[in-house]
Each structure stands twice: as C-alpha cells, then as structure tokens.
Write a structure and sequence with these properties.
Keywords: Signal. It is found in: Cell envelope. The protein is an alpha/beta fold. The protein is built from ten helices and 14 strands. Helix 3 (86-98) crosses helix 9 (255-270). The chain is globular. The N and C termini lie far apart (113 Å). 38% of the residues are buried.
C-alpha cells in the first residue's frame, strides 16, 4: 500500500509541475507581444517605429520645392504665402492618415534626399523620379503620377529647334539635380548646360536669349506656355528621357511608413484625386503667372 501511495503522490506532483510549466509558457508568449500593442492608423496600417516617431512629435515634416507648379508652388494670393499643389495635397492626405499635422519645409530640389538621410524631413514629395541611383540613398513609394519631358523654346525658334539633334552644342537649362539635368548631360551632345536653381530662373534665361531651351516635365511647362505667348514646346522627341513618373521618398528602413504611403497613393488615384488636383492647380498656376506679369 505504501508503495502504491508513493506512486500516486509522485504522479500528482508531476501533473502539477507540468501544469505549472504550461502556465509559464502561456505567460511568456503574452510578454512577447510587441510593445506597440499592435497599433494601427485609422485605415488599418500598422504603426511601426517610423510612424510612431512621427506620431510622438505630432507632425509630419514634408520636404518640397515651392517653385514647381502644379506640384508645389506658393499661393501668392494667400496672406501667409502658403504652398499649394498636387504634392501638397498628397502630403496632407498622408499626414491625415497618420493622424498628425502636415508641416511643409520648402527647400531646393538638390537638398531633398540628403535632408531625408539626416532626419531633417520625414518624407520628400517634390515630383521625384525614383531612379536606380536615388534608390541607393532613400526608398520610394509607388508612383502617384506618370510624366513626360519636353523642351520649352521661343516660338520664333521652333523651326530651327525641332529635333533633339538641333540642340547639340547649344546652351540648355534644367533644374539642378533633376532627371532633366541628367538627360541633358547624357543625351544632348556637347551641351552647354545651365544648371538652374528653379524653373522661373530658367524662364528668365530663355527670355533673355541666354539658353536655347529648357528641359522640363510637360505638365510643369504648360503653366509657363499659357502665361507667356512667345513660348512653346519644341517638336523635338527627347529620346532617352528618364521621366517615367513621380514617387514619394522616405528614409531607408521605414517599411511601415512606406506601406502607409502606398495605401494613400492607391486611394487618391482610385478616387480620381490626382487628375482633379492636376487640373485645379494647373489652372491656378497659369492664372497666377499671368497676373504676376501685369
């Protein structure tokens, strides 16, 4: 009997120990739950380190060039001269999804990517084409709009500047650090490149006869052609152009932020917002340019 009693006691103890171990295992699993508690934004995007850092400070810092209508330009009719445009609207939509204020940081295009790497800005929205070279520095969202490059010339010179070859050896302007500048260097033989800080400066150079043409994205150039009757697009086909489409740039490693941005981009495109903003701000920019000439 004593032997049987010892066996029963031992079995009971072993059962209790096993149950205790199982209980400890369950507790450990719960402790391994992510510290963020599985937080999501209002549309269900996971809040990781990048988004949480933005939420903690309470605003999204967006780098943009304020002289590139209809994407980003200054509303001269407003009291605070605030930036408006396609990129501005997209930036606001991204900030809204995160649940914070959108703060825009005007800067030259050439400073955008380095500003992301040094955390001066959270994202860059400035009609940026995601080239392979740029992908080595930052990450990019899906494209939110397609684009096409053209050459702006004076109407009086159109017949003499109707092919890409007709610009060989001539002075041509393009924004510093842009894919238009890269195209001019790579595909216009013996080009005398004027690396311009912005498009308005290039227009002044063209009007003064200092350059033969300006390499520019079509929807951007249309504002200036509408405002300046003596300007037009050349018939030249810019074979080799790097212009494909524009994406939002963000710091490498921000996968949670990238997923959210892609979601916002997909939604505004599906809702027809990009086309709506393009038409709206193209018209606004043309009117402002005409008004400023008076």
């Amino acid at each position: 009997m004593k032997r049987l009693f010892k066996i029963l006691i031992t079995a009971a103890l072993l059962t209790g120990i096993a149950a205790g171990l199982t209980g400890c295992g369950s507790t450990a699993t719960k402790q391994e739950t992510p510290a963020d508690g599985g937080k999501t934004t209002k549309s269900g995007y996971t809040v990781g380190k990048s988004i949480q850092a933005i939420k903690d400070k309470g605003y999204l810092t967006i780098g943009c060039d304020s002289s590139y209508a209809p994407f980003s330009f200054i509303d001269t009719t407003s009291d605070n001269k605030s930036p408006i445009g396609i990129d501005i609207e997209l930036g606001k939509a991204i900030a809204e999804e995160i649940g914070v204020e959108a703060r825009f940081e005007p800067m030259l295009f050439k400073a955008l990517l380095s500003s992301l790497s040094t955390d001066m800005i959270d994202i860059g929205i400035d009609a940026i084409t995601p080239t392979e070279e740029r992908k080595k520095i930052v990450d990019f969202s899906d494209m939110y709009i397609l684009c096409e490059d053209k050459m702006i010339v004076k109407k009086e010179n159109m017949s003499n500047l109707a092919t890409l070859e007709s610009f060989y050896g001539k002075p041509v302007a393009a924004n510093t650090g842009s894919i238009q500048e890269k195209f001019a260097n790579d595909f216009i033989q013996d080009v005398q490149l004027f690396s311009s800080p912005n498009l308005p400066t290039s227009i002044l150079e063209l009007q003064a006869g200092h350059v033969a043409g300006i390499v520019v994205e079509k929807s951007v150039g249309q504002q200036y052609i509408a405002a300046y009757p003596n300007l037009a697009f050349s018939d030249a086909v810019l074979t080799g152009s790097y212009a494909k489409g524009y994406s939002v740039a963000y710091k490498k490693g921000g996968d949670d932020l990238g997923a959210l941005i892609n979601g916002v981009v997909a939604k505004v495109k599906a809702d027809g917002k990009i086309e709506q903003w393009r038409d709206q701000y193209s018209e606004t920019a043309a009117k402002m340019l005409i008004s400023n000439k008076k």
